[in-house]
Each structure stands twice: as structure tokens, then as C-alpha cells.
Specification:
The complex is a heterodimer. Chain A is α/β, with parallel strands linked by helices. Chain A is built from eleven helices and eleven strands. Classes of the chains: A alpha/beta, B alpha+beta. At the A-B interface, helix 1, strand 1, helix 2, helix 10 and helix 11 of A face strand 2, strand 4, strand 7, helix 2 and helix 3 of B.
Chain lengths: 244, 195
């Protein structure tokens, strides 16, 4: 994208053009801060963390911010939702960057900062709120396009709904250990050759152990005229019993 | 007639490289390897036909040994599952989110990857690359330049570089008025990947 835009700018007559090929991931990897846009901070489906002391947070904070003072981050980091995007601000950008590194190390991937912390937020015209702090995180992942909800999926596994079938795309040895009793098992690498075994007049709800392989299978099946949806969930099976 | 056409195909492939970027995907069903002959007048010789998939890697499953690659644009865009095995070369180049070129062969009616290569970006002539350290220095010194994030607005909103403006590449013409009027001023473009 950057190279094609550079080409277009050149056509417009710009004479001095460079491209930062390593891009946003390269900048983040080098340990430099990236920032969240104002609308993302105020309305995005994020976890906004105020790293300052609880007293400061009580006195004034960005709306929706959860208070996790930096000194307590280490004990709370394991309980943070793995898939959530995080936006941080603290006393200083250095403090926020330290927190970002700790969170990266704990396996959290999507983290950016409020530029200039609370002062920067106020300067950019952002609103603030005050009073007792919020310490509990209420974040729910938004369903992706093509995903099946847990409720719809379970209605088929327990036989309540008959408008869909369950497709298990885990490997043979994984499904041999256990599977949903009414599931059709076709490992992902065989889906291309064996899709004839699937009904075209019913929806197909696909699961694996996390959702990654199910997503790939759904894309392939939808290309070929099936109505396939994937389940994003950790699935563990033993005999005829699976836990999600 | 046919030979003339074949002669141009490598150029068309090159042109498609030039117009694609980070997450844009292109596909050429067949890659033609041509060679210019020596002697009077260049002559193209068709050496081999290697079928390739070119596009963004959507996902890689090590458990199922399958790469999902997005090929085609717009209406024709689709995700294809390509299998791989221990003989597949360069499987480390199949990284989700990165553009790749996969050479494949059909076995039992299914595509199997033989070689996976990263699809490297071609910079337009006169355009140079800037590395992280130099960009950081330029910022720290307060040098005057316009930093443009070419990614979609949603990705920009979630995480962007200090001082960047957002002109998504597919809306470049519409939003080009955000660029400085003085065409001698330095522009630096970035997006979400090394290609």
C-alpha cells in the first residue's frame, strides 16, 4: 500500500518521496510508541488503562478508563483479556512504554498509547470524568464476519436446531480422542477433496481447537458455494463430550 | 503474433508488482519465465510454466500443514488453501499478513506448495527506503516532513506512528489534498508490513 501510494504521489509531481517499508510493525518492534486515534480511545471496543495512582484517577481521567496503577500491573497482567486491544496512559510516556513492554511479554499483542497521556488528551479537546475509579474490565470480543455465535453452535450440538451441521476440521488423531457426537470429521487438509460429504442446503458450523483452522475451512467452503461459519473458541474433547 | 504477446507478459507481471503494495493482492495464474536471446534482435523463449499464487497469506496452520492465501481483487478475491509438506521450500516465508508468492503443483486435484517466497516491494524509481533508526532521528530532530499512513482508517485509529496522517491507499486520489501544497517537501509513506 505504501509503495503504491508513493507511486501515485510521484505521478502528482512530488519530488521528494521515501517509504518506510518496515511500517507500523517495525516501529512497534523497535520499542517505539504508537498512538491511538481520539475516536478509538473514546468509542473503540478497547480496554483503556490508566496507569497512574488511583488517587489521580479519581481526580480526573479519560472516560471508560480502568484504574491499574503501574505498581500493580504485574499481578493483574495474567487476568487481562488476551484478544483485547489495549490503550494505555500514565504519568509519563516512559511509564506507559514500560507497561506496554510488560504486557507484550505476557503475550498481549494489540497495545497503543494515548499521545501525551492525560495532558495530551485534554489538549486535543478530549473530555474527562472524575469520581470513584473502575477496576473491573468488561470487554467482549466482537464477532468477526463469518463467525457463528456460541449459542447458535450449541443449539446444533445439542440437537435443538437442525438447520445446520457441525464440521470438525481437527486432525484425525485429535478427533479420535473425542468429538461432538453429531459432528462430521474432515481434517482441514482434506476439506478440498471431501466437501462432497457436506450438505449444501444446510448451514455448516465449523470448529477446531481455537478457530484458526475453522476460519480457513469456512473461507474455502464459502468459495465453493457452501454456507459455512466458523466458531472462535477453545474446544477440548474427550469421547462424546467437548468443553468450550 | 503469439511470440510478441509472450514477450510482453514479463513486463505485465512486472507492472503488476509495481502497482501492488502491502496488503493489496494480485494474482497471476501462470508465471512465465522468459529469456532474451542473444544475437540480432531480442527473442523471448518460453522456458517453463510454473503456476503461482500471489497474494496475502491469511493464515498458516502447522497442525494441518495448510497455507490460506488471499488472491484476486474486489469481486474476484478469494482465499485458497494450499497444502505443504517437508519438501516445501521457504515455508518460513509464509507469515500471516505478509504478501507471498507460492509456486505450486497439482497433486490429486489439490494445490501443493513447492516454494514459498516473500513478495518484495518494488519502490517506484527515485523513491528510497527509510529505516527505523533514521526515521526516529528525523522525528527527534524535528525535521519537516509529512508522514503518511497508507493503511485503512480502522488500523490507523488503533495504532499509528507519532505525527502521522492517514490516507488509505485505496482512497489516495480522494484524499490527496491532505498532502502539502509544496511538491518539494519530503513525504514518507508507511503501512503495515515489509512489502
Amino acid at each position: 500500500m505504501s509503495t503504491s501510494s508513493a507511486g501515485q504521489a510521484k505521478k502528482m509531481g512530488y519530488k521528494n518521496i521515501r517509504v518506510y517499508l518496515d511500517g507500523e510493525p517495525g516501529w512497534d518492534k523497535a520499542g517505539y510508541p504508537t498512538y491511538a486515534a481520539k475516536g478509538f480511545i473514546s468509542k473503540g471496543n478497547i480496554v483503556l488503562i490508566d496507569l497512574r495512582s488511583a488517587e489521580k484517577s479519581v481526580a480526573g481521567r479519560i472516560p471508560r478508563a480502568v484504574s491499574i496503577p503501574y505498581a500493580t500491573l504485574n499481578e493483574k497482567v495474567a487476568s487481562l483479556p488476551q484478544k483485547a486491544p489495549f490503550v494505555l496512559y500514565g504519568d509519563t510516556t516512559d511509564q506507559a512504554m514500560s507497561a506496554l513492554k510488560d504486557m507484550h511479554e505476557a503475550g498481549l499483542k494489540k497495545i497503543s498509547l494515548v499521545q501525551g497521556n492525560l495532558d495530551g488528551w485534554i489538549k486535543s479537546g478530549g473530555e474527562t470524568t472524575s469520581g470513584p475509579v473502575v477496576t473491573t474490565i468488561e470487554w467482549k470480543r466482537q464477532m468477526e464476519k463469518g463467525e457463528v455465535s456460541m449459542a447458535d453452535f450449541l443449539n446444533v450440538t445439542n440437537g435443538k436446531a437442525t438447520d445446520a451441521v457441525i464440521l470438525d476440521v481437527r486432525n484425525k488423531d485429535e478427533s479420535a480422542e473425542g468429538k461432538f457426537k453429531n459432528a462430521i470429521s474432515i481434517p482441514l487438509d482434506q476439506v478440498g477433496n471431501r466437501m462432497g460429504e457436506l450438505p449444501k442446503d444446510k448451514k455448516i458450523y465449523i470448529h477446531c481447537t481455537t478457530g484458526a483452522r475453522a476460519d480457513m475451512a469456512a473461507k474455502e467452503l464459502n468459495n465453493r458455494g457452501y454456507k459455512a461459519f466458523f466458531l472462535v473458541a477453545d474446544v477440548k474433547c474427550k469421547a462424546n463430550d467437548c468443553t468450550i | 503474433m503469439k511470440k510478441t504477446l509472450i514477450k510482453f507478459i514479463p513486463f505485465l507481471i512486472m507492472a503488476s508488482f509495481l502497482t501492488t503494495g502491502c496488503t493489496q493482492t494480485g494474482t497471476t495464474p501462470k508465471k512465465l519465465i522468459a529469456q532474451h536471446g542473444t544475437g540480432s534482435g531480442s527473442r523471448s523463449v518460453l522456458l517453463a510454466e510454473v503456476p503461482v499464487y500471489m497474494g496475502n497469506v491469511a493464515d498458516v496452520s502447522k497442525k494441518a500443514k495448510v497455507i490460506a492465501i488471499e488472491v484476486g481483487k474486489g469481486e474476484a478475491a478469494k482465499t485458497i488453501l494450499v497444502k505443504f509438506d517437508d519438501k516445501t521450500k521457504g515455508i518460513e516465508n509464509a507469515v500471516p499478513g505478509h504478501a507471498s508468492i507460492i509456486n505450486y503443483e497439482m497433486r490429486g486435484g489439490e494445490p501443493w506448495a513447492t516454494v514459498v517466497k516473500p513478495k518484495l516491494a518494488k519502490l517506484p524509481s527515485g523513491v528510497t527506503e527509510v529505516k527505523t533508526a533514521e526515521l526516529k532521528t528525523m522525528m527527534d530532530k524535528g525535521e519537516k516532513f509529512t508522514l503518511v499512513d497508507s493503511r485503512p482508517a480502522k488500523r490507523f485509529a488503533a495504532s499509528n506512528l507519532p505525527g502521522a496522517i492517514n490516507i488509505p491507499s485505496d482512497e489516495f486520489e480522494k484524499q490527496a489534498n491532505m498532502l502539502p501544497e509544496n511538491k518539494d517537501e519530503l513525504l514518507v509513506f508507511y503501512c503495515g508490513g515489509p512489502t
